[in-house]
Amino acid sequence: MAGISSLGVGSGVLNSDLVDQLVAAERKPVETRLTQETKRTEALISAYGKIRSAVTDVRLPMRQLGSPDALQSFSASSSGDNVQVSVDSAKASRGNYNLDVTQLASGQSLASGSFVDRDSTTLGQGTLNISVGDKTTNVTIDSSNNTLQGIANAINDADAGVSAGVIDTGDGYRLVMSSDDTGTANAAKISVTDTGDGNNTDASGLSRFAFNDTTQNLEETVTAKDAKMSVNGIEVTRSTNTVEGVVDGLSFTLNDTGQSQVEVSQDTQAVADKVQAFVDKFNTLKSTISELTSFSPEAGGSLLTGDSTVRNIENQLSRQLTSVVPGLEDANVRSLADVGITTNFQTGQLNFDAQKFQEQLKANPDDVTALFAEQGRTTDSQVEFVRSGTDTQPGEYDINLTQTAEQGGFLASSTTPASVTVDADNDELTFQVDGDTTASIQLTAGSYTRDELASEIQSQLNGSSALSSADKAVSVSVDGSGALQFNSTAFGSDSNVSITSVDTNTAADLGLSTQSGTAGQDVAGTINGRTAQGDGQVLFLDGDAGEAGGLQVRITGGSTGSRGSIQFIEGVSERTVDTISNIVGLDGALRTKTDSLNRELENISDEQQQLNDRIQSYRERLVSQFSAADARISQFNSTQQFLTQQLATLGGGNSGGGGGN
Length: 661
Known about the structure:
single chain, alpha+beta, Immunoglobulin-like, eight-stranded antiparallel β-sheet, five-stranded antiparallel β-sheet, 35 strands, disordered N terminus, disordered C terminus, cilium, secreted, cell projection, bacterial flagellum, FliD_C
């Protein structure tokens, strides 16, 4: 190629411009074709990408309708400012409740006597033993922290369940302690080991900070109180001003005493808005497809006109959205059309009658829920549908029990006296619950009947932070013989209750001693004739167990033997989500099509490289041929010049001789 600049010197014709023209003529047809194929392939990839994005956008709102909770939206209002209410729609139901708040929960506050300074005066040494609920903390006071401020800092650093500070009253300084949590169970008791003067109860040295059942050297400026209220005449007590678990799905926040009425109503508009979100996304998909597949006599077809992949996607979605849901053939609501979601046959888009939908949701909530979400309908009221698996197929499946679930626990080995007195020698009990949770309680001193003692123990266990943080609980009752019965509220082989330690006279006075409980048992039986596994009250099949694989039911009571059947219904949402996932998945039609087009681009790129190589070879061949021809022509020209010169010379000599004759 270095010599191409000298082309044409010999001939004047076979030059580099002619090479460029011949090369361009050779390249143009193929390159034009490859450019057009590249643009079309890239346009198709972009078009399928738009459809994939639009299809994916339909999945989210449809998935949000796939849970029964999504079809059960509730709202609540309170007539008074003294009570605020929040709703968990998954658990709530319609109703009216009269609330009368008679007392708000408060945390305890304690205050010391007055001191002349906060940082200089030494106040004794020893140990503060602080008990709050079932937590006991020892705070060491020595020469490094035995001032008023030092004691406050030491208490705060110990995380003892109380917070301390120093207040300047104007007439002196006072140490104040406040419970971190409200409620009588979180009131602090402080005992002192005074190593300074050896007296643990007098009003001097470190013992001036003692406050317990026998010694009150601190002033209780605020008494710990539980929140008290009645709900429809039923008395309720809680340690905090947030009251949960009284009415399913409702949480009350108490701001003041007084009466108010709470109304819980179904929020059908909120559910209709979720359906509208799905309809909007589906119509956007239809608009995208219409734009990419449209045809007109004037403009002709669009990029994907007549495309079988797109047509197949439309058919799959249409079948899911227009067919009757299996299992609802005889129901009041069988298809989307029954709840106001119909197809515009001109555009293929969906029309949504929100008013009709809300009317059907109110009139037939169970059927509307099954229309969208998965649902299990049981013939036994004590059998509940929990969930399905990815392999569970719609259908009816028989349930048979060989063993019912039981709660672990124990019956006290001794009866409790009809009347008991609780004091400092028999008031402490420690329980082991469900294998790994320890809960220590301290009973309130006083006289109790047998039933009152059971209620007191129950109240202390209900207020145990160790149990509540582990989401565990214990039920306490009195059996016919007068012995106390303790059971875990959980079911299954992991549930149990034991007493691991008691106070000095607890066994003699209350009839309670250390005792190990018996573990509960898991439910056992079959589903659809296949042996199922049990976890507490839940009976379930593994995912590979045939048509019912992954199905889970909860047995809340009853006996062994046949427990009827469960009809599993897979609603429109779940089926549509599965269809979309298949369409856009790794093995889906869109991914397959896009992968094929990307391979075409790779082939075009390879063909382009082959063209470049062929054109390069063609150019080199032309240059070589032109160079050889140009050299030959140059030789011919040189010969011509030589002959011309020779002929000219010969012609000149003849002319001179003739003149001499």
